[in-house]
Structures are given as structure tokens and as C-alpha cells.
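Renewal narrative, Specific Aim 1. Our central claim is that a sequence can be written position by position from structural information alone. The example that follows is taken directly from our test logs and has not been curated for this report. It begins with the C-alpha cells describing the chain, in the order in which they were read.
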């Protein structure tokens, strides 16, 4: 099927992909006996979450030429995401990620991306510049800035967008991918001039700006030219800032099973709200609920909610 037949896209994400092997029991990995296999990777999960909400989504990423790579491509398609920009890297294995589960708020994560992850082999010359330029919402993550040639590809994609509305940088900082927080801050600072939206938790915003206070971090990002800054505070809720508006949304009370997919569900729902033209308050409330739903489930990608599920959750919250 040609790209014309598949139709125009609403969302393109770019970055990490892999296989999540999540334990089916809580506790330390040395004691776990069974695992579930799921599609993983932040940028890919955001595309899945947006597709689940009805957006036409695609992901730019790379996989190994191996069984896990074939699984990833099949899972991407099965979950409603266009895989036209997913390619194989013959000499690198598809990454595997493990986590431990200690609810409600401790979920250590272990990345096996050796000797190098294929998704860091995205090359500038391989980018579909027409698609990146045309898509209403483009989403990429800080992980893609951690190594070449992915760094140059991300820089080129963001330069093409040139701070167009709905050009999103997910401040998805993973310490194991970087020499230091300062190294990450240097790369983030270099691309902020082409970004219109940033999303990150308090720690990630601190890495990006050097500011530990959420409002101070938001001020620093706005001063760098970002138009919408979202700071996720976990139990403290979510803060969003523009030059003219400040919105805070409290978290939902839920029984957490696995908190690792909540941020990606939030991201997909944020895409949905931005594309729908909703007020900031409505968008954050909806995204918060989507994240809470996924945190109450074991898996990430296959747990992403529909709009009806999110609205049902919000309805139950209002009637409680």
C-alpha cells in the first residue's frame, strides 16, 4: 500500500524502540520466574498511544535484522502505527529492556542496548524530509541526541521544523545513555531554538535547565524560546506554562501496578489534545487520566487507552 493510499499522518515520533520483558511478579529480577513480552521504547509507545486515541501515527526508528526486530515491526503495525519509516540495521541486535516492580513508586529499569541500539543509527540522509515538514505534530526524545548518527538526524529534523507549532521534545533523560547530565544539557540547549513544546518530569527539566524548581525550569525553557513547557511532578501533579498561562493539574488516586508506561500514555494523550485544539487545562486533565490508566496496568504499549476509556475514567472521578 502506498503512502498516498494510507493517507496523511497526524503524528510522527522519532527515536527509541525495543522489546520490553516485564516480570509477571513483583520483586527483584533474581527472584522472578516469568516475563511478558511487549513492544517498548518511549517514542514508539507515544505513537501507539496517539494511534489508540484515533490519530494517524508513524514512528521513525531502527531495529535489528533478527526475530525481535520482526516482532517489533509486527507489533507496531498491529497496534495501529505506520511502520513505513522503520528500517533494519543488519549488524546490531534489537534492544531488550527489563524492569523490576516495587509498587507504588519504584520501578528500576535495565536497558540492554549493546554494543549499540539500532535506533541510534537513524541517519540524516534517510529522513523523509517531506513527511517531517508536513506532519502537524512531530515528537522526538532526548535519547536520540545521545549518539551519532542519530544526533545529527534529530538536529536536522528539528531544524526542518524550525519551532513550528507542535514540534515536541520529550526530555526523556536516561543516565545510562549519557556521560553526564551536563553532556545532555549541552545537546538539549543546542536544539531548543527549534522546539515549540517540551515535556519532562522534574528531574529531566532540571537536567535540561539546571533549575530544580519546576517554575524556574519552566521559565528557563520559555526564555530559550519554547512556547509550551510541561513539567510532570508525579505525586505533585502536572505543571504547564506558556508565556501567558500557568496551569496545574492534580494527580489521580490509583492503585499503581507499573508506572513505567504512564509518561508515554500522557504523551500520546497530549498529542491528541494539542491536535484537537483543546484548552490547556482540558488537555492536561485528559493526559493525566490516560497516564493513570496505564500505570494501573502491567504493560505499556498494549495498555494504551482509547478516548472512551479515558472519558469513562474522568466520568467516574467526577461522580466519586
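The sequence written for that structure reads:
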Amino acid at each position: 500500500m502506498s503512502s498516498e493510499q494510507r493517507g496523511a499522518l497526524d503524528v510522527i515520533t522519532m527515536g527509541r524502540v525495543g522489546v520490553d520483558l516485564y516480570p509477571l511478579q513483583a520483586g527483584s529480577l533474581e527472584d522472578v520466574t516469568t516475563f511478558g513480552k511487549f513492544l517498548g521504547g518511549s517514542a514508539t509507545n507515544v505513537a501507539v498511544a496517539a494511534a489508540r486515541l484515533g490519530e494517524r501515527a508513524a514512528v521513525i526508528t531502527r531495529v535489528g535484522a533478527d526475530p525481535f526486530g520482526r516482532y517489533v515491526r509486527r507489533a507496531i503495525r498491529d497496534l495501529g502505527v505506520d511502520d513505513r519509516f522503520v528500517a533494519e540495521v543488519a549488524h546490531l541486535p534489537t534492544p531488550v529492556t527489563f524492569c523490576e516492580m516495587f509498587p507504588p513508586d519504584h520501578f528500576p529499569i535495565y536497558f540492554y542496548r549493546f554494543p549499540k541500539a539500532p535506533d541510534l543509527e537513524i541517519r540524516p540522509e534517510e529522513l523523509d524530509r517531506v513527511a517531517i515538514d508536513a506532519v502537524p505534530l512531530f515528537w522526538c526524545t532526548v535519547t536520540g541526541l545521545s549518539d551519532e548518527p542519530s544526533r545529527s538526524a534529530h538536529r536536522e529534523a528539528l531544524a526542518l521544523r524550525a519551532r513550528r507549532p507542535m514540534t515536541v521534545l520529550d526530555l526523556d533523560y536516561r543516565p545510562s545513555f549519557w556521560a553526564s547530565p551536563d553532556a545532555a544539557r549541552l545537546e538539549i540547549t543546542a536544539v531548543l531554538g527549534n522546539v515549540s513544546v517540551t515535556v519532562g518530569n522534574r528531574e529531566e527539566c532540571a537536567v535540561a535547565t539546571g533549575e530544580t524548581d519546576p517554575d524556574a525550569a519552566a521559565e528557563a525553557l520559555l526564555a530559550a524560546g519554547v512556547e509550551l513547557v510541561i513539567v510532570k511532578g508525579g505525586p505533585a501533579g502536572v505543571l504547564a506554562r506558556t508565556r501567558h498561562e500557568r496551569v496545574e493539574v492534580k494527580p489521580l488516586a490509583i492503585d499503581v501496578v507499573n508506572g513505567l508506561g504512564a509518561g508515554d500514555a500522557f504523551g500520546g494523550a497530549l498529542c491528541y489534545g494539542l491536535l484537537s485544539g483543546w484548552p490547556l487545562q482540558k488537555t492536561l486533565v485528559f493526559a493525566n487520566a490516560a497516564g493513570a490508566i496505564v500505570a494501573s496496568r502491567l504493560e505499556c504499549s498494549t495498555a494504551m487507552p482509547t478516548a472512551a476509556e479515558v472519558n469513562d475514567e474522568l466520568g467516574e472521578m467526577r461522580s466519586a
